[in-house]
Amino acid sequence: MIDCHCHLEQKEYDKDRKQIIEQCKRELRALITCCAHPDNIDLTLKIAKDYPNFVFAIIGLHPEYIKDINEKNIKDTIEAIKLNRDKIVAIGEIGLDFFWIKEKEWQEKQKELFRKFIKLAKELNIPLVIHSRNASEETIKILEEEEMKNKEVLMHLFQNRKLLKKVIDNGWLISIGPGIKKSKDLRKIARDAPINKILLETDSPWFAQEGQKRGTPLNVKIAAQKIAEIKKITIEEIEKQTDLNAIDFFNLKIK
Ligand SMILES: [Zn+2]
Predict the structure, then answer these.
(1) Do residues 222 and 230 touch, judged by C-beta distance below 8 A?
(2) Which of 163, 173, 198, 247 is deepest in the core (most CB within 10 A)?
(3) Are 29 and 53 in contact (CB under 8 A)?
(4) From the CA of 221, how far away is ligand 1's center (Å)?
(5) How far is the CA of 157 from the centre of ligand 1 (A)?
(6) Which residue has the higher pLDDT, 244 or 255?
(7) What are the structural domains, with CATH classification, of the chain?
(8) How far is the CA of 93 from the centre of ligand 1 (A)?
(9) Residue 206 gets which letter from DSSP?
(10) Residue 107 C-alpha to ligand 1 middle, in angstroms?
């Protein structure tokens, strides 16, 4: 099984990162760790380097940080992506977050930054991993305007049931995490999305389950189990197909 979206660089793992990844290595097939802030680029790349063919890195700039970052941060992130093009498997997570950022002017800044990274992805011919919260319509509109239809786009934790058809019609993929246990909308999304369009993720350390202090990539199994139940197919079938989807989308070099 592949966790296509976690944050291994987060401080929650500082004390036992090695043990966690070693355990994942025994139980999972690959992890894709997502760097969302320029301060974390070096650590993210180091983790991927330490676990070749198992941990893969992606780099982006999370829209939630729009108020904290400056021009230099943006420039540094773009430089790091270009410089490490062959060490990363996508740009992300990038996109729009109108849940945390409510002011119009800051939302406009998010859009500007989003377009910048889409252009970069096209220039480098690398997939995009999208964060979109309370902003699905605007996110899709921008992706369409930037001519990303039928290009490599993954909507991470996509939650908008009404727009699922549009996402699928545009040739994009979605990733589903353990949040599916609690969300009716997500269960309907899992039911309606074709299995060849679904990847598994955890967004850990977030989405800790009952009794856990933090989430880990092993929680990917919870998402798989739930999707298997909903689609009435075996968890092995879910694993097989979502692995294929992830390997194909990110072009993963797994041994
Ligand atoms: Zn994330």
Answers:
(1) no
(2) 173
(3) no
(4) 18
(5) 8
(6) 244
(7) 2-250 (3.20.20.140)
(8) 6
(9) S
(10) 19
